[in-house]
Amino acid sequence: MLDSVAQLNRVADREGIPNADVLLIALNSCGARSPLTKPRMRFRLHLDGYPDPVYLILSLGRDDSPFEIDSEELRLHGQRVGRVAGIEDDDAVLGYWRNDGRVLTLNSNARSQCVGCTFCPNTLEGASDPALDRHQLSSSLQALAAQSGMADLSRMETLTVCTGCFLYEDLALEHLSHVRAAMNDHGNLGTLQFLSSVLTTQEGLRAAAELGPFHLTLTAECFTQRRDLLKGSKASLSPDQMVTALAHARELGITTDFTYIVGLDPMETAIEALADFVPVTSTFPRLQIYQAHTPLMDVHRTPGSETLEWHLEMRHRLERLFLRTGLRPQWWENYRSPWCFSFAGEPLDGTKV
User: For 164-181, b where at least 16 C-beta lie within 10 A, e where not — what string?
Assistant: First the structure.
């Protein structure tokens, strides 16, 4: 995908985008070789030539990658391109903070136990994310705040329930009502966000809207290979059904977006389908570069997406889809984004964790 730092700089100049964006696209797609005994890791990357670090979650053990990473630095074909700090195992923890402590991602229903989708790294992860009941949720929120040096939850603007373990809509709604009650225990009236494919009916969406400020991130993931790649609750939804669900949610005052993995579908198929999602999306979607966690997972890539040129063309076409909406990606929301420091020529702040 990249054969040298010189090529990286030439491509960035030709495309008119920061060389850091080109590097991060290639790194997320290729993964890295590493002497570290971890299948995946979370870490801060201080890119050479940039003052502030970016945060990444990366697949290791890719012996065919042009990148190599250890506990000190990242190299491209042997040449250093950045320093590494804050290494952690990418395990399924109970919760972690984003956006300078304003957003809490909560794995409150044993996300690590869900192994339904082929591309998911859960099977590579350790886990400390138990299923929490109503009484445990409130104390867990307080503990997560205290671990980050917060006296209370007053700074939390959004709590994101990130889990794939709800089989049915009614079970998800019951848990979400308990999460909202726990937020209320701490006087927090912020947004409750839910990443899932099970909340789709008008009745269920209406119940979610009644919980207070609500944000639905529908896990669309891909449009082809759905039966082969996705667990049943996701695969059973058609693109038209997903668009309809997001439209109903917007009508109810729910904030809407979706997750989609770039590199699984042919480009024309992806752009044609994603165009239908734009009018029913109120925040920028989580468009994630496909990470093949092992070489065996490369088989799921759509032909051409193993190249840098494919990803850069896809980036440009996605920009054209969303340019007029005013919606823009933020790196802290998505560490596998095709955008970190620029979007269609506009500068972005890619340094927020």
Answer: bbbeebeebbebbbbbbe
Q: Does the model's pTM come out above 0.85?
A: yes
Backbone φ, ψ for residue 217 (5° rounding): -110, 105
Between CA 54 and CA 154 the distance in angstroms is: 26
The per-residue pLDDT for range 32-89, each reduced to its tens digit, is: 999 998 888 999 999 999 999 999 999 898 999 999 999 999 999 999 999 999 998 8
CATH fold of 91-306: TIM Barrel (3.20.20)
pLDDT in tens, 198-227: 999 999 999 999 999 999 999 999 999 888
User: What residue spans in the chain does CATH classification 3.20.20.70 cover?
Assistant: 91-306
Residue at token pair 């979007």: 343
Q: What are phi and psi of 29, to 5 degrees?
A: -75, -40
What are the residues whose beta carbons fall under 8 Å from the beta carbon of 300, sequence distance 6 or more? 118, 119, 225, 229, 264, 290, 292
Q: Where are the beta strands (DSSP E) in the chain?
A: 40-47, 54-59, 67-69, 73-76, 79-89, 92-93, 95-98, 103-106, 127-128, 158-162, 191-196, 214-221, 255-262, 286-289, 342-343, 346-347
Count of CB atoms within 10 A of residue 44's CB?
18
- Structure tokens given for 166: 């709800």
CB 23 within 8 A of CB 81: yes
Q: How many Å apart are CA 279 and CA 183, to the nearest integer? A: 31
Two structure tokens written together for 265: 């579908």
Residue 110 pLDDT more than 80? no
